[in-house]
Write a structure and sequence with these properties.
587 residues, 6-stranded mixed beta sheet, 19 helices, 20 strands, nucleotide-binding, ATP binding, ABC_transporter-like_ATP-bd, ATP hydrolysis activity
């Protein structure tokens, strides 16, 4: 590995390339994020967003276990970053027996060190007023001001309350927390440490509206550079001052635009590295429009060239009759050929050679076919019908799960479309597990249709055999016959190159795609989705939402996704912590 790292107030990446033996992640990537700027990373699952954040944070420079698992990566380039750069990773580094106060204090280790240095420098200055002692104290004071060491406890309480975990208690152990609570404590710990630069991997996963709004305010006011990877479309719109698209298909479209129009039509995009990524200076909503226009231009150019090549091949193959504007020779043509046969043949030959030359040139420089994005191909057909299509599938009456859920009534019909909302702790995931039959209620009744098939896409995906390939697991779970009827590659969720890789080598988003594929390959009568857009690419999240609208069974979704909720057209059930009855709102 050959990565040059220097210190800077800015966060700058130049000529960064990463590849593994079986694939290239990105090449010759370059961008700069100035203090107070916030760059959002977007792209398909597996495009390298988490890898890029780890690289900037310096994980590949360390000899720890996490870095050693990636030791076969070929990395080159230059990185400049502030001295104190903090990373929020998707995989949290907490031991199950650690207490929350220990986690938070560990995050403050560097801040405590700065505080001690300030005390020591002040003591040294009191006994020595030399220039060296004065310079030491000045540097220590500057570092303490940047780390805001005097307001640590107040900031801690404010962060915990703002992220919705202030009431959980600092003496609890990590093993006692839910996945969402652990994520919010990790985010609080990182912000509390007050690094000069922030690197965030999916920071809004598990955040409700209030916590997401709180985080937005904190990041907009952050004085240093911020880089974050997110699939939260609303969060991107509200926080990012720029976007870095790691989708190689888009850089190809921009390169085409520049080649064909001298750069005209690229709009607010800036081509920084055609083989790496593309920085866009507008909002996410504007980005969606620009990207759609770029792809449409690329597709039109490809179609036009294919049509022209087909015409030229026809001319070459058809000889004189094709070259003569596609019409059969007339009697007058035959009369002229009788007297001028050799000259006509030469003219035909010249036209054929000209067509061959133009065809060869076009074939050598033709625009590549726009790559088909990994898209949700739609829920495959299958047996959904029950013996009696009428009536209710599930019915809950006066159900309660102590400390987690209380609900008067809920009915799920064959074509129900229900969105469950509410703050963290309101019981959304608990309700889905009750509907799935994986959690028993403490009180009340749950009535389920006979032969009903219910499946749940959970928030946190865990596979028992990380060494298995997606294709092997798919065939094992579905059976050989069903896997042949609905091949994994036909779902558009796992790229062909990833079907044979170990599951443990896939990104979090790619693993969730696999979990989704295992559910939709044998569609259930009731499809339950817990935060379905978490970890999924922006394009896939949009395609999934559209496909669920025509799903041939019942759909129940629990989500914090504000983008999804603003566009929801079905029923809604709002749950609230401490309120015994959910409020179901018809749309």
């Amino acid at each position: 590995m050959a990565v040059s790292v220097t210190r800077s107030e800015h966060l700058r990446v130049d000529g960064l390339s990463v590849s593994f033996p079986d694939r290239r992640v990105f090449a010759d990537l370059g961008f700069t994020v100035a203090p107070s700027q916030r760059l959002g990373l977007i792209g398909e699952n597996g495009a390298g967003k988490s890898t890029l954040l780890r690289l900037i944070a310096g994980e590949f420079e360390r000899g720890d276990a996490a870095a050693s698992t990636r030791s076969n990566a070929a990395v080159s380039g230059r990185i400049a970053r502030p001295h104190r750069t903090g990373l929020l990773a998707q995989e949290l580094p907490f031991g199950p027996q650690e207490r929350i106060d220990q986690v938070l204090e560990a995050a403050l280790a560097e801040v405590r060190g700065i505080e001690r240095e300030l005390d020591d420098a002040a003591a040294a200055l009191a006994g020595d007023d030399s220039g060296a002692a004065s310079a030491r104290y000045s540097a220590a004071l500057d570092a303490a001001e940047r780390a805001d060491v005097w307001s640590v406890e107040a900031r801690r309480d404010e962060l915990l309350d703002g992220l919705g975990v202030g009431s959980l208690g600092l003496d609890r152990r990590v093993s006692e927390l839910s996945g969402g609570q652990r994520s919010r404590f990790a985010l609080a710990a990182l912000l509390l440490s007050a690094p000069e630069a922030l690197l965030l991997d999916e920071p809004t996963n598990h955040l409700d509206d209030a916590a997401a709004t709180f985080l937005e305010g904190r990041l907009r006011a952050w004085p240093g550079p911020v880089v974050f990877a997110s699939h939260d479309r609303e969060f991107l719109d509200r926080v990012a001052t720029g976007l870095l698209d790691l989708d190689p298909g888009r850089t190809g479209a921009l390169a085409l635009a520049a080649r064909g129009r001298g750069g005209e039509g690229v709009s607010r995009s800036e081509m920084l590295a055609a083989s790496g990524g593309t920085v866009f200076g507008g909002s996410f909503s504007e980005f969606l429009t620009v990207k759609a226009d770029e792809r449409a231009r690329w597709q039109r150019r490809f179609d036009d060239e294919q049509e022209e090549m087909q015409r030229l091949r026809g001319e070459v193959a058809g000889g004189a009759r094709r070259v003569a504007h596609g019409r059969a020779a007339t009697d007058n043509d035959k009369f002229i050929r009788h007297f001028k046969g050799e000259g006509v043949d030469q003219a035909v030959s010249r036209r054929v050679r000209s067509a061959e030359s133009r065809l060869a040139a076009l074939e050598g420089e033709q625009v590549p076919k726009p790559p088909a994005p990994i898209a949700f191909a739609g829920i495959p057909s299958g047996s959904h019908a029950l013996d009696d299509a009428a009536g209710l599938l599930l019915q809950l009456s006066d159900v309660a799960v102590d400390g987690r859920l209380a609900l008067d009534a809920l009915q799920v019909a064959p074509l129900t479309r229900l969105l469950v909302t509410g703050a963290n702790g309101a019981g959304k995931s608990t309700l889905l597990s009750v509907l799935a039959g994986t959690r028993q209620v403490d009180r009340g009744s749950v009535h389920r249709r006979r032969a009903l098939r219910v499946q749940l896409l959970e928030q946190d995906v865990r596979f028992a055999d990380p060494d298995a390939s997606p294709r092997a697991l798919y065939e094992r779970v579905l059976g050989e016959r069903r896997a042949e009827q609905v091949p994994l590659g036909g779902l558009g969720l796992i790229a062909p190159r990833d079907e044979s890789r170990p599951i443990g080598a896939l990104s979090v988003g790619q693993q969730r795609r696999l979990a989704l594929a295992l559910v939709i390959a044998r569609p259930p009568h009731v499809f339950l989705l817990d935060e379905p857009t978490n970890h999924l690419s922006l394009a896939l999240a949009t395609d999934l939402e559209a496909a669920l609208g025509t799903y041939p069974g019942a759909v129940v979704i629990a989500s914090h996704d504000r983008w999804l909720r603003r566009r929801w057209s079905g029923e809604e059930l709002e749950l609230a912590a401490g309120r015994p009855v959910g409020e179901r709102v018809p749309q």
